[in-house]
Structures
1.
Amino acid sequence: MEEDKLSTPARLIVIGGSAGSLQVILKLFTDIKNTYPLSIVIVLHRSQTMELLLEELIGYKTGLHVKELEEKEIPQPGWVYLCPPDYHLLFEKDKSFTLDYSEKINFSRPSIDVTFQSAADVFGASLVCILLSGANSDGAEGLAYVKQKGGITVVQHPDDAEVSYMPQQALLRQKADYVLDTPALKSFIERFSV
Amino acid sequence: MNALNDEELDLLLDDMLQLYGYDFTGYSRASLRRRIQRIMINDKLPSFAEFRYRIRSDSHYFGHTIEEISVNVTEMLRDPAFYKVIIEKVIPVLATYPFIRIWHAGCASGEEVYSIAILLREANLLHKSLIYGTDINPAALEKARQGIFAINHIQHYSRNYIAAGGRNDFSAYYTANYNLAKFDEELGKRMVFSTHNLVTDSSFNSFQLIFCRNVMIYFDKPLQDRVFQLFDNSLEHFGFLALGNKESIRFSPIAAGYRQIGKEKIWRKTS
């Protein structure tokens, strides 16, 4: 299959990251003024004290609408949603968000694996998952599942990542569709704008 | 492993309802699917057919499944900012009642039941309080009755306790033994633990304060509305309803009769 994988219109981009990913995310969203026909969800390992700060930080840098997602909300095009700390994020068949307070996975809640897997079940080929810098192996298994379900997988280039372990683990688990440094990630995301 | 599909999940929920009277049809499918897949992996069941057969033919295995489906993750004084408001705004109101009745719905292994008991004791109100802890999981309730929790969490609970504004030394409330902490039996004497299914069981008393934290997130909208109605029927006028950090009564049918206390997920019944 040599066709451009981006030919299936993406409905959702999920960005997962841990240690060292915040700076990347801030760069990705700096000066984005275009509108997007899809929703973006960010799942980060972070402490509860960062909760409000992050929403403001990203909102300040971008022209996109940014908010912490709410339980049962259906993601709208053009919005950036942040997963609240200390909850797993899942998707229902009607695409609505479901929060889950079950056991940590990979020592993490939210777990990136959990969200990638659930998003893959619901969005299939119209899903793009991006895994950034981090010091744990969360996300690797989820990313492989996304690929199995026909979604697009993107990993931050380990050389570009502040903490390379998480991208490396994902790439060891399975080859990604794209391995990109921060500037390339930024233009990759901008390809989806209208 | 492939995800359990919708038809399989429906079959299973139907079996559980028909054979055992447990109704999970109003639960959020995404979480439920994850829980069930986890059970199948842990129990090394190779196929859905095998799992379904076990459920249908073995009531003990069904009991085990109930225990594993229900999420039992909890902690003492979870979200200290929330408990600070309980201490400053709710407990002073409770103090005006001759007898205090509190219901902790979906209390799992009871950590939050012990939390409120400690706070009531510090307000000198525990002797005239009764706290009901209910859950669908009998094994979790048995743990709650014992009041014995793993010692490795205690440091975290102590920090929560201090952040919430606790007045004592937290270690005054438990005795440590090897890797366990047993909480003061005087606390346990003011608690009643019993199974209760929010989906099918009705109101069993009236309360001045109901806790139900991180339970509603597992329910779909119709079931949430039903349970909110159940709480409304179980709450006295001017009583309090306390929910999890990401839960709200905002879009529920009972919202009009309640006023939120500050920013925390605590509402007071006003009509």
2.
Amino acid sequence: MSATKIEAGAAGHGAEPRGKRTEAGEATYLIAIAEALWEEMERDERVFLLGEDIGVYGGAFKVTEGFIERFGPERVMDTPIAEETITGIAIGAAMEGFRPVAEFQYADFMSSGFDMITTALGRYHYRSGVPLPVVLRGPSGGGVRASSFHSFNPEPWFAHSPGLKVICPAFPTDAKGLLKAAIRDDNPVIFLEHKWIYRRIKEVVPTDPDFLVPIGKARVVREGTDLSIVTYGTLVHWALEAAEQLEAGGISTEIVDLRTIQPLDTETVLRSVEKTSRVLVLYESHRFLGVGAEVAAQIAEEAFEHLDAPVMRLAPPNVPIPFSPTLEDAYLPQVPDIVEAAQRLAAW
Amino acid sequence: MATRMDQQRATAERDWRVGLSDDQLRHVLYLLKLCRYFDERMEALYRQGRLPGAIYSGRGQEGTHVGVAYALRPEDSLFPTHRDLSAQLTKGLDLKRVMAQFWGRIDGYTRGRDGNSHIGDWYGARTWTVMSHLPIAYPVACGAALAYQRRGEPRVAMAICGDGATSNGRWHEALNVSAIHRLPVVWVVNNNQYAYSTPNRLEIPTPTIAERAAAYGMPGVRVDAQDVLEVYRVAHEAVERARSGGGPTLIESVSLRWRGHAGHDPAKYVPRALLEEYMENKDPVRRFQDLLLAHEVVDEAAVKAIEERVEREFQEGYEFALASPFPVGEEVTMGLWVEDGYWQREPSREGGTEAP
């Protein structure tokens, strides 16, 4: 089976996700993700979806709503609740030439398939030379009062497991371009969609079916001179809000959105640190051995002579994500926490 | 013109030989003896300290391994465990490269990135590169079988695990999904009666593993692995049923693990009388050899020729392995990502043959 190129929106189907954009052409993060899946399925018949309740129901978050009508139950495959086997099917089908995209209802449940993901999927190519073009995607992250089992950030687990690329986009355009790149990548990719962003953030997203965002490249989303905030996911948006307040107080903040956790774009991070000499590493996975711990270590090793202050970290404590609003807000770094940390860093 | 008696004799012939020609029967004997000899010699080298790493003997279970794998076509895929090297050899692995793998050399199938029977040859013999977390390959076999079904290809995936792995959730997940979609897959359980040291009675509440198939609406067959032809017959039937759209089958093939779980394990938990019973009276290799001698498919000279061939091939494999260079340390990070191209090019052969 070969990849065939199609016109944008050639499907002409009423359920096509692009039809759900605003009149101004803006797509939410969720719609951008749906468009990426749709376009890649149109382009390449080797791509198929599998997961729990993704068919007639359209997925727990409705990302695949309308897909089964267009692509049929073989390419939009409902599975039993069996995360090990969902991953295993994806691996076996990939070995035989397919390009499976498996949806996990919540990224939390990736732990139910952990062995298949980290032992089998991640380590297979290094030991055998057999590529496994598999994408595992699911909603991650907190801030939506979903408590311990529907708010997790598993990115450090998978970034620490050799052989898996890990992507955590913050914007609709990046989500679309990175997911399309992930589906076309010959390596396994863990694609973590932040559920807080799903319907909150929208922008005009490219419609070119070959629009891709390169995996492994960070992006400076706000230029500044006094300090850098290195972050990803929902916290990019909270950092942008904090930066506005800091600007009002005379502090110019640069924000680096990592976009990809593995492979990590250390170069873009270091360039920003060299420019501002102060860096706050802001991340949503647990502070202890979380993503920012590695980022901070690399900065300390590689940019020591450029630093005017110690590398600062702001991240959740090492406890399960709690439910009660007061507890969840205490757990996740809030905008005032980011502002306060940045002010301390600027004053160092 | 054939007489009625001749026809009857021909039918009886077909029955005992389960459709295999003389050449095929002789090949099965060669495989059984190769696997047995390899297993014995590798253990000897291990005990002499001349073989690094680990060994996982499949001795006594050759009836299962050769019987099920011989039922597959080259284009069918096999998802075995570390215990099932004999099945991989039957499927067509090159003994030289197998032995290079055991000695950690660049010509091993994993280029030194894994050792011993954690081996596979996807682009050649169509076998999964074995992992330890059993039965980790069971769900993967579902995916390969799904691919064959989707493309309408007359191919079959076969997965093997031990009795111990049937306690794991994935075993049940995979059987369940395979039955829902009537996938072209054959599930083999090499019941060698012990999960490391734990006997069947502490692993399985039902009298047999095969009867669990009923819970998933698929045929379950229990077969005595001392009879390689019976194993082959059952496996062949299951494979062809899967190939023709008849869905999955569970095969429980019963033997005894003659040696410990791994080379370090003396397996004192196996009752002496049980072990002697199997080694004396239920040896699948000797039994099959006697059968072929009795039916005059081979004579003593032919058996001796097979033994000489096996010994020669082992020796050639051993010399090949020790002459193969080690991978170079500088390439340790290569081959993780597809785009680094490591697996598409010849690796460095500058690693020398002296172990560090």
